[in-house]
Amino acid sequence: MTAAVVVSALGVLLAGQVQAAPSASPPPDSTPYPSIDPSDEPLPERTIPDERFAPVDKPGPALEVPTDKLEAALQCTGNTAESSRGVVLFVPGTTVTPRDNFSWNWFPAMDKLGRPYCSVTLPNNAMSDAQVSAEYVVHAIRTIHRISGQKVDVLGHSQGGTEPRFALRFWPDLRPMVDDYIAFGATNHGSLSVNALCPPVVGCAPALWQQTLNSGYIQAMNSRQETFPGISYTNIYTRTDEFVQPNLDDSGTSSLHGGGGDITNVALQDICPADVANEHIAVGTYAPSAYALAMDALDHEGPAQPERIDRTVCGQVFMPGVNPLQFASNYTATASTIAQQLTLAPRVTTEPELKPYTLAD
């Protein structure tokens, strides 16, 4: 089945519901990404055997990033140390900082709830080697767990869903420190759209190379097992994602399968079938159904359960925390930052080499 056929079929499926649907989230006039149609292409077969990668219980390496840089990148609310529940760590996506990604949506929503949270700023707007960015997440999880005495709930958007998984894969001491892993439109197995951003001669930013389909980074992160016991995994994606594809169902790039822990892979359209407007930026910044799923995971044992979500959320335009009067300017500012980084960030012509600790002895 071709992508065009899938899009057509999706349109037929939704056509009967669109008129009765509430006002959809305002679609952007244009996307900062190299947009592709929803794809039913299967994920490619792995090219690097699992036995080439380090065992999952191999102790993690010492962090190479200087401690002062790691500490400066972590920002927490004042109630973190007194928390009686898991502290949420927000990890931003490629091209953006926590301010761009979360300050106009998730941060005010958490403030209103009185819930403690932290965020980690990744180097160079998360455009550098993702293996280095993962060290910032390692330090953040360890620090939050130490100062709060609680397990950490990790919430990441796009590439922000991969650094926590890379950290959990190669620093096994983190696994008992994490309760929930929640990701929005994560490039867990790479993306067709990112491949288009990395032509062989021109190249692209290191972190983009690492999010291409079957990159070394992707295969290392998913080697031996994708998930770990004791952690609840909630992977939220949208079938109309113009940047992270294939993502038509739970065989796509964002979803995880196997290794341990409880897993929920869920599309926004599983909650709100007529939702065709919420795209890649929306799923991690203002989509109300994405917020409802994430909060369901945070408020219950285990991952999100779609059947618990009140379908009245489909009548909402924005998640809590979004100021409707400031939405247009906030969205435009975020999209402009993304476009600027995609255009101007330094490029390399090959993917960064895998760090030695990722490989078997």
Describe the structure.
The chain is an alpha/beta fold and 361 residues long. Helix content is 34%, strand content 10%. The protein has 14 helices and seven strands. It has helices spanning 3-18, 67-72, 98-102, 106-113, 123-126, 130-148, 162-170, 192-197, 206-209, 216-221, 268-271, 280-285, 288-299, 327-344; strands at residues 74-76, 87-91, 117-120, 152-157, 178-184, 232-237, 262-267. The chain has a seven-stranded mixed β-sheet, with helices on both faces. Helix 6 crosses helix 7 (162-170). The radius of gyration is 19 Å and the shape is globular.
Short key terms for the protein model shown above:
7 strands; 14 helices; 361 residues; alpha/beta
- Spell the H/E element sequence: HHEEHHEHHEHEHHHEEHHHH
Please give the count of helices: 14
* Low-confidence runs: 1-25
What's the shape? Answer: globular
Name the average pLDDT. Answer: 91
What share of residues is helical? Answer: 25-40%
